[in-house]
Amino acid sequence: MTDPFQDLLNPPSLADRHSHDRAYTDPVVLEYLSTLASMPLSQLDTSEQQSLAQTSHSLLLSLQALSKRSHKSIINSAANHANLSTALPALAAATSDLAHAIPKLDSEAVHFSTVYHKSGDNEMLSARKQALLLSRNVERLVDVLDLPTLLSTAITTGSAAPATSYTPALDLNGHIRRLHGLYADSPLVTSVSTQADEAMQAMAKNLILGLRTPGLKLASALRTISWLRRVAPDLDSTGAGGNGGGLGALFLVCRLSTLINMLAALEPLRELAEQERVRQQQNPTGSAWSGGQQTERYLKRYIEIFREQSFAIISMFRSIFPAPANGLSSGIGSVDDLQPIPSAISTFPFYLIEMLMETLRAYLPAVKDQPSRDSLLTQVLYCAGSLGRLGGDFGVLLATIDIEEADDEWVEVVRRHRLMAGRLESIVGSKDKGAPDMVKT
Question: Does this model's pTM top 0.85?
Fold first, then answer.
């Protein structure tokens, strides 16, 4: 019944047949038609038109209010809806391109992961690893690079204050040697070790120059030799308790050089003595003013320097390099058929004595005054006595000096010297005996 009534109210045309077919299924339309069918005719004639007019007006107001509130959104929606015709094809094309690019991207990612894998060998990765390792350890590398500078500073400071500053330099050198032993293949550590060796050579030169100091004391000599043992251990192959080895020879050479330099400072006096000796040879009769005064001054100063320095050299050597014990010497001989190398000090006093005797043979005959000559001979005997306490008495060699008209003069000088030495020993012995008696009382 509803369908014919709807066809009666709104007959469909050919153009609206599709919408007409959809209206049959609209639940709102079907419900309204059912309501109209249930109404009496009088109501349809009187109130339904007013109701429809009111509803239409209400809908119109609602549409107006909605358009006023949402006209911008509606316009934007319409514009966007119009753009969908072009946006959707573009999206489809981009999606298609992406679908075609994904396999290539996947193959490139697999290739990248294969080439730059941590377990693989790649020069670029190795370079980056080295750069990262260098960045993490830059402070340590800077500390290692500063070691030669610190060592040079410690050595320079030690030259001014050797009692306090050479020990840090030796500790730094030991640390560098340990690093070189642990990282022998490292070019950086090898370069640092080379610079440290050059600095230690400079330190060794400073120590050797210290051994040539004129006023060298036993404490300074002991300290310098102990440092040289650490700086140049090859020179001390026999150890601290041996016969001196290379260090002993170096010590004697340095002290001998100092002695020669001190004697060379007497060159002006030697020139005067030489001129005086030449004049005496040219004029044997001589004169009162050419009796050897200049020669006496030269010899007196020469003997004084020789006595002080020779005794100091030999005594310091024996204190620094004590002779080995008998048991040690026998033990060495039992192991090796060859005898141990003798100490350098064994022949050194002979060289010193010969140097003094050559000077005396050349200039002592030029001293014509007997008291002056006796004074010089007495001074030489004192020097011989000083060396005699160290096993180097050479008083008997005075007989080899050729002095005209004074062949037996040295015998008298020796007799007087021994007489005075005996009296001095007796006086010292009596004082030593009287001291305990005073303590008892």
Answer: no
